[in-house]
Amino acid sequence: MIELVNVSACQQQLRVIDRLSLSIGAGERVAILGPNGAGKSTLLKLFSREIYPIDEPGSSLTLFGKRNFNLWELRSLIGFVSQDLQEDYTPYTSALDVVVSGFFGAIGTHDHLQPTPEQLEIGRAMLDAVEMTGLESRMFQRLSTGQKRRLLLARALVHRPEALILDEPANGLDMGAGLTLLSLLRRFCGEGHALIITTHHIDEIIPEVDRVVLIDEGRIVADGPKPAVLTSERLSELYQVNLKVTEQDGWYRCWHG
User: Fold this and answer.
1) What is the mean pLDDT of each run of 10 residues along the chain (257 residues)?
2) Calpha distance 45→123 (Å, rounded)
3) Does 2.40.10.350 match the CATH number of domain 2-88+161-256?
4) Which of 144, 179, 254, 256 has its CA 20 to 30 A from that of 114?
């Protein structure tokens, strides 16, 4: 599904990803974990083609087997949710219009982008799916942070993509909103789709995730099955503090040792 070979990328003229190689297959559920500034969000922006890698010899990035990708086609294969999108979204947009804007890859609604009756029907179904029935007329700015995040999840799902990519999905949510969102992600994974999430909180890694990638300073420092990577030793080294990790029923917890 995604393959990077010796890829580097810059943000604000700083090299944030440094000669990184990574392969993620169709249907895989992967968590990318690392401290702030490690390069997690930049890596996801490479996947979504929001930014492009530095053109260097021996470097390549392929998505679904292609190096050159039509963005419209890519939107139908990958649903993307980020805090940047939430912060940039037009505040005076109804919940239903937010969802159906996903059909056009737009932020907000525009006169020249009119959804069809079928698209509106799908939008309402997606609102139901993310437990926001009855809120289709509510303005985006009037929603709670948790509702906004669920709404953007619905927007990402309108094309029924093969993969869902989320950048720190539960960040800034209270306990109830965070658990609701994680429950929705578990349901999505239960349908056999691929999932890629970034986080620096291991309690946000749902049991369905079976592979974890640790990243620091733009490079991968560990990659493998969740039990082998989410250990006290590895996370203590990653975060430069003594940490203890436990697991119960597929959920991991971490505290200062």
Assistant:
1) 96 92 96 94 90 93 86 82 80 90 76 82 94 93 92 91 91 90 90 90 94 97 97 96 96 91
2) 25
3) no
4) 144
